[in-house]
Specification:
mainly alpha
Length: about 240
């Protein structure tokens, strides 16, 4: 239980680190874009090679497909709602002429972080191998997310203490979510855990496709496609070590 909470918090700790970097360091936008592209590739790879591949032959294919598409649909619906409130700017480093919607950005980030943390917690149940590649992928992808949006929030007049408090609370909630995922699903069958993993994979792939990749391309140009591919093959290599 505590190991699940520890690693769930660790994966999200990069949100806090990225926020500090965004507030106090001047990092070129292209560098941020390349980190985001690498994180995108890692997430795509880990969602495919870890979450989906692990379920192969251990759960019904129709159920896996349904849960994957349901995860993508749920994220998309929430993304539409959050975007209408201003949360679509949560990964942006530029100044928003209408002002960032602080709470929408915050809840949008939670929408990304909590499902990721629950999946981390599930990975510690029973005899399943710990999803080290997935944890590493989330850690890397979180860095540019908080770095970019913290720069934007700073430009819109948010104080450093308030920004750090918001990101710090996400880390705490992520740790708690990972622990709860472990506790509530500890007694469930192995197939249920894999189905939840498929649900998370669908949500994650929808998230990186609609938020991270567009932002990375906008800031980094066509080269981000190659960087994302590097992330995918790196995920594949780490999964097969």
């Amino acid at each position: 239980m505590f190991q699940a909470a520890l690693w769930g918090g660790f994966a999200s700790l990069s949100l806090f680190i990225g926020a500090i970097a965004g507030i106090y360091l001047r990092i070129p936008r292209r560098i941020t874009a390349y980190i985001m592209a690498l994180g995108t590739g890692l997430i795509i790879g880990s969602a495919t090679f870890d979450l989906l591949s692990e379920a192969q032959g251990k759960a019904n294919l129709i159920l896996i497909t349904s849960m994957f598409l349901l995860g993508a649909l749920v994220f998309t619906v929430f993304e539409i709602v959050i975007s209408r409130k201003g949360g679509n700017e949560r990964k942006r480093s530029k100044k928003n002429p209408h002002g960032h919607a602080g709470l929408a950005i915050y809840f949008g980030t939670l929408m990304d972080a909590i499902p990721e943390s629950i999946i981390i917690g599930i990975s510690f149940i029973g005899s399943q191998p710990i999803q080290w590649v997935f944890i590493f992928s989330i850690f890397i992808s979180n860095l540019p997310e908080s770095l970019s949006s913290s720069i934007g929030l700073r430009k819109d007049g948010y104080g450093a203490r308030k920004i750090l408090f918001l990101w710090g609370s996400v880390v705490v909630l992520s740790s708690v979510s990972s622990m709860l995922g472990f506790l509530f699903l500890q007694g469930s069958s192995e197939s249920v855990s894999y189905l939840i993993g498929a649900f998370g994979a669908g949500g994650l792939l929808a998230m990186v496709s609609s938020t991270m990749l567009p932002e990375a391309f906008e800031q980094g140009g066509p080269i981000v496609g190659f960087v994302s591919s590097m992330g995918i093959i790196l995920s594949f290599i780490l999964t097969n070590l």
